[in-house]
Amino acid sequence: MIKFGTDGYRAIIGKDFTFDIVEKIAQAQAESLKERKAKKVVVGYDTRFLSEDFAFTVAEVFSSNGFEVVVSKGSCTTPALSYAVKHLQADEGVMITASHNGYKYNGYKIKGGYGGPATVEIIKDVESKIDKTPVLKGKKDFQILDFTSNYLEKLKSYFDYSIFRQKEVKLIHDPMFATSIGLFNRLLEDTFVDVIEINHFKDPYFGGHHPEPIDKNLSLLKAKVVATEADLGIANDGDSDRVGLVSESGEFISTQILYALLLLHTVRNRKFKGSVVKTVSTTYLADRIAKKEGLPIHKTPVGFKYVADIMLKETVAFGGEESGGYGFGFHIPERDGILSGMLLLEMVMLYGKPITEIIKDMFKEFGEAYYKREDLKVEGSQGLDLVKSLRDKDIKEFAGLKVKEKDTTDGVKLIFEDDSWLLFRASGTEPVLRIYAETPSLKTTEDLINEAKKLI
Does the keyword field hold Phosphoprotein (predicted)? Predict the structure, then answer.
């Protein structure tokens, strides 16, 4: 059975991600769109093995079903594809990508006409139609367009470029061998920002690492920042909807801290007001900032599609999740790692101080926060069983901390009296239990994680 996860369908190429399966998904999406009287679809793809071939297979199926089809000229980022869906006034889009997964994987993401993740209802409708009608093929009538240039021009329109001409700054960018290669150079040409790229050629093996901008995958970026005395380092994942940040001292900055920094920058410096949206696994700093700024806050299950859903219903200043994917109310309802990187650079230049100093100032105002997550392989349904048992228990205390609230939005989250929290989430697709914790002390965070692991 073909089932979509939190962000599209992903599987191993040649096993559960084949041309036959891609054709079936495309046909099911075409049937769903025909019921909604839709007429136009855009298709993009990343730099993975066979992504271009899969994309043109999708385009052929839609063309054969009578749709107007526009395909990206070359590989593109997911945010560029999502912007193209809205900019070209298409009904839906398809992005062939497995995002941050390893090189063996590929994936199929569906984007709504508003330029963001398809709703849960649309995904369920597409799933229900898979294998219900014969796949139509044979017609290859589609237009090829450069999605990236239009997208970059849109990003440029959000900035007063004089900020990037105030002083010389050195930025190291790590596109992780993928879709963001060259984009910061193009965005920052004719400025005082010296962009140095590493890992800047297309490699479908991603240099032997997952193209995920997390600490363990950014050793070269950290070393390069220190060696060249750069001001900051920015990394983007395989399809560039996530961002990672390295400080001037070569330290990886937690994605939870990035959430708080970007939220503050959006509502204070850019003065864009609206509600705040966070997933259940996101920092308590979001709540404190929203309270001080007088902004309503929404909490959702893990997955940006839930964040995007609220962005479609009301004015949202900022929304995101702990994975490093952030969306902005003045942009499309989509995670955008390139825009996030540009905003972090803007923030550093605006304050005129290192990112570590900006973080210290934030901690001084809102309190310190130290986050850790561990993904544990478990036997069979062990993870799901543990989460169920915790959901049913009345827990007053854990690891010496008094529990003030238990949140079962997605998994089981224990919230303590000082806003510290511990979250248990079991994967529904693999035998993995995810444990997250955030407290005002790094030692306490580590102690919480260790106590939680004893329950396995």
Answer: yes
- The rounded distance, in Å, linking the Cα atoms of 192 and 69 is 40
d(CA 40, CA 333): 20
Domain 167-250, architecture per CATH: 3-Layer(aba) Sandwich (3.40)
Measure Cα distances from 354 to 169, 197, 229 in Å: 11, 20, 12
- State the distance between the two ends of the chain, measured CA to CA, in whole angstroms: 30
- Global confidence as pTM: 0.95
- pLDDT one digit per residue (tens) for the chain, 456 residues: 898 987 899 999 999 999 999 999 999 999 999 999 999 999 999 999 999 999 999 999 999 999 999 999 999 999 999 999 999 999 999 999 999 999 999 999 999 999 999 999 999 999 999 999 999 999 999 999 999 999 999 999 999 999 999 999 999 999 999 999 999 999 999 999 999 999 999 999 999 999 999 999 999 999 999 999 999 999 999 999 999 999 999 999 999 999 999 999 999 999 999 999 999 999 999 999 999 999 999 999 998 999 999 999 999 999 999 999 999 999 999 999 999 999 999 999 999 999 999 999 999 999 999 999 999 998 888 899 999 999 999 999 999 999 999 999 999 999 999 999 999 999 766 788 999 999 999 999 999 999 999 998
Kindly state which CATH superfamily the domain 370-453 is placed in: Alpha-D-phosphohexomutase, C-terminal domain (3.30.310.50)
Instruction: Of 112, 114, 185, 116, give the one whose Cα is nearest residue 148.
Output: 185
Kindly report the CATH number that applies to the domain delimited by 9-151: 3.40.120.10
Q: With H, G, I as helix, E, B as strand and everything else as coil, classify residue 379.
A: coil
Helices assigned H by DSSP within 228-377: 255-264, 285-293, 304-313, 337-351, 355-366
- Beta-carbon contacts of 177 under 8 Å, excluding residues fewer than 6 positions away, are 47, 199, 200, 201, 202, 203, 204, 205, 206, 207, 211
Domain boundaries, the chain: 9-151, 167-250, 255-335, 370-453
Tokens 């859903």, located at residue: 309
